[in-house]
Amino acid sequence: MGKKKKKNVEIVHPDGNPTQGQLSLCRGITSTPVLEDSVAWEPRWSDSVTGDDDDIDDDNEVGNVPPEGDVVVVKTIGVETSSTASSCFRGPSRRYIAAPSGENGNDRRRRKKKTSRQDMSWFLTSDSEICSGGPVIPDVIPSFGGHVALALWTSPEKDRGVLECFHRPGKVESLRRYQWSVEGSREIVRDTRLSHLAGCMIHHLDVALLSAFVERWQPDTNTFHMPFGEMTILLHDVHHILRIPVEGVMMRDEASADILKADMSGLVRLSVDASVGGEWKSKWFVNGGMHGDGVLVRARELQIEEVEVQCYLFVLLGSTLFVDKSRDRIRPAINLFLKDHRSVAGYAWGAAALAYLYRQLGVATRVDSKSICGCLTLLQAWIYEYFPLFRPSQLVQSADAPRASSWVCPRLSGGDDARQRLLGYRHMLNEMSPDDVTWTPYGRFPGKEVPRSLFTGVIRFSDIAEVYDPGRCRRQFGYRQIVPRPTMVPGEHYRPTSGISYSVFWSKSVDQLWDNLPGHSLHLDFDSFPCELPSEVDEGYIDWYQTRSHPLINHLSFKGKSLCRPVLLDKLCEQIVDRLGPVLKVRDRAHFVEHAAEYYQILTTTHELYDQYIGAQPR
């Protein structure tokens, strides 16, 4: 253990009476600041990156909390400083909130203090100044004050542009070609129902398209707010796109940073002492995250079946479902659910991946956020499933294959070209109607095929928990949309303009809802089809929605600009050449432009004949 240094601190209780204590800091370990000669405090831990910081260590910082729910501010009195102190105890002050009596400190995440909690400008109330683009009534999306869409509306000249999208195509490809060192390991991994993930990730992301949809995400409801209502990624989408389990045990387990470190050192058969220095620290464990390459190298060296299986799954999941912004590291919390390979298939990995993506989408909506991570294959494939206008070419494959692997996504240019595509996508989304959406891409009754998709409550991955409310998106089940009931509100949340300070806390008590699906699910009548077109809504829904949402991203003064026309033309040409080329004898884009009028007449006539055919069918 490193040498201890002590600093005087002041503990300010809610009654205003300060007490003195000593703060001990241990060099060389991400350790708990310990107050001596003062109140007995209980540690709170965190392992998940929720902000825009690439340094996983920031999220492994540990805070202490006093008992009985006291709120305290710890202020440095002494002037002694050190690198260890600055890394464990940033800024002039920290605020910690104790867990309720009887609740473990691990049940609540320590909230970051990189911006002042006194700044509540991000939270809208009835007294807030109303934005001309909405919402007029801020009860549905109260955190819109820190949203990038508000900044785009009020200050379009400060457009943040295209997000940096973190994914790991190189690592995924190496996993797909992985050479097993122990006979039998491959079969065990296949039994987990996760082995196919390396083969269904999208390698070429459309960062402009993803950025355009992020701008429409509202973390208060965990839905995309479109001009015609709300949509979201649902559990039946995860089931069809990734083919991973969405039913099973909720992934609730959490652990301290020290326990996670001990687990990882045990996995690769190194002592805990070795894990904090020497070869271990320099080769594998860096800034609170594990280097995936080092883990697999060690597994091949040991040639132990259970170690190789666990290490492979650890790297696979960290490179597909739970990608962070570190580029080459993997968060240790994943290992909590891999200790017994026989139980891996029993976890609800789909729900965990969706909760993690929900959180990353929420962080990315903040004005100062510049990037996004998570399973972006899930997000991009979901867009393709529901929005035909954005679809690339698609391969024909078996019905039980992951639909994500069917999309042939071309490599798209970045820089100014990506920015131009983003401007075009914004305009296209602003102009969309419900008729431009394929509401039920997997069949008529997705809720009947995947009952867990109807669950209403909170989904979780370790200490990340997010609300899941399918009632806001009934049209995606093939039913008429009605005015939804109010969405559940977390016990604590902080969504300012800075993604680094973004935090949401749900009590563990809400997890029991997952275990009672019949009592906590959206009730739909599968014996009848309530509407002829799934895009239908109840009377009054649109009026309700328009006053509580921000349906348009671009300011009205930007509406109608021709920046998107090249994008629209390219998309149209691409789809006609790929899909109708053999029928219309279209060779390429130039040939299409030359004979555009002729092709337009053919397509118009075909559409009219189709309408007449549909109208003549008996009902």
TrEMBL record:
<feature type="compositionally biased region" description="Acidic residues">
    <location>
        <begin position="50"/>
        <end position="61"/>
    </location>
</feature>
<dbReference type="GO" id="GO:0010073">
    <property type="term" value="P:meristem maintenance"/>
</dbReference>
<feature type="region of interest" description="Disordered">
    <location>
        <begin position="1"/>
        <end position="24"/>
    </location>
</feature>
<feature type="region of interest" description="Disordered">
    <location>
        <begin position="84"/>
        <end position="118"/>
    </location>
</feature>
<dbReference type="Pfam" id="PF10536">
    <property type="entry name" value="PMD"/>
</dbReference>
<dbReference type="InterPro" id="IPR019557">
    <property type="entry name" value="AminoTfrase-like_pln_mobile"/>
</dbReference>
<dbReference type="InterPro" id="IPR044824">
    <property type="entry name" value="MAIN-like"/>
</dbReference>
<feature type="region of interest" description="Disordered">
    <location>
        <begin position="43"/>
        <end position="67"/>
    </location>
</feature>
<protein>
    <recommendedName>
        <fullName>Aminotransferase-like plant mobile domain-containing protein</fullName>
    </recommendedName>
</protein>
<feature type="domain" description="Aminotransferase-like plant mobile">
    <location>
        <begin position="205"/>
        <end position="546"/>
    </location>
</feature>
